[in-house]
Amino acid sequence: MARLRNAGRISANWLIIIAAFAAAAGLWLGMRVLAPARGPALATVVMYPAPRELPAFELDRSDGGKLRLDDWKGRWTIVFFGYTNCPDVCPTTLSDFKQVWKRLPAATKQRVRFDFVSVDPQRDTPAQLARYVGFFDPDFVAASGSDEQLTRLTHALGLVYARGEPRDGTYEVDHSASAVLIDPEGHQAGVMRPPFDAAKIAADLVALAGTR
């Protein structure tokens, strides 16, 4: 019976993930076909027809401060949700974003930020997050929080995550592989889907920031 219950939970998690990804794919396709041009032509970002308002939230930053919605205002912010024990997607994505950051002119860096939000707060302590993100770039912001805060925020952004059943004392977390783009008003402006091309993303951010 325990095995059946575990299998049921795992199947339910996968159904949630599949449904969320299908919905996101449909939204992405709809935006590609139906969305009118808004702002500069971009190679890597699918912009929403209208920016989406986000709910207030409060997460714990790795430096001891708080990450709130107001912190996403005043600049363009690329936000990626993952976890430090991720075997492939997260380190690959942050490595790509590291290359993007290196390519940005100093003027653009004043108007752009990269945030990494962990969906594994049980293991990703502030110290662990600081070490992990600092390995890629010390300018990147890292944060996490309660499942209540994380679930509310990821749902608002059209993202999803689900933890697998523990095995041999550990577990994996299934999560969306897309990054979201937050505009200087603190609204979700669009989405970036892998694979991530550092040169093209950098060019898009320069165009969005209006810098050279």
TrEMBL record:
InterPro entries: SCO1/SenC (IPR003782), Thioredoxin-like_sf (IPR036249), Thioredoxin_domain (IPR013766). The chain crosses the membrane at residues 12-31. Cu cation binds at residues 86, 90, 175. Residues 48-210 form the Thioredoxin domain. Keywords: Copper, Disulfide bond, Membrane, Metal-binding, Transmembrane, Transmembrane helix. One of its GO terms (molecular function) is metal ion binding. Disulfide bonds join 86-90. Belongs to the SCO1/2 family. PANTHER family: ELECTRON TRANSPORT PROTIN SCO1/SENC FAMILY MEMBER, LINALOOL DEHYDRATASE_ISOMERASE DOMAIN-CONTAINING PROTEIN. This is Protein SCO1/2. It comes from Dokdonella fugitiva.
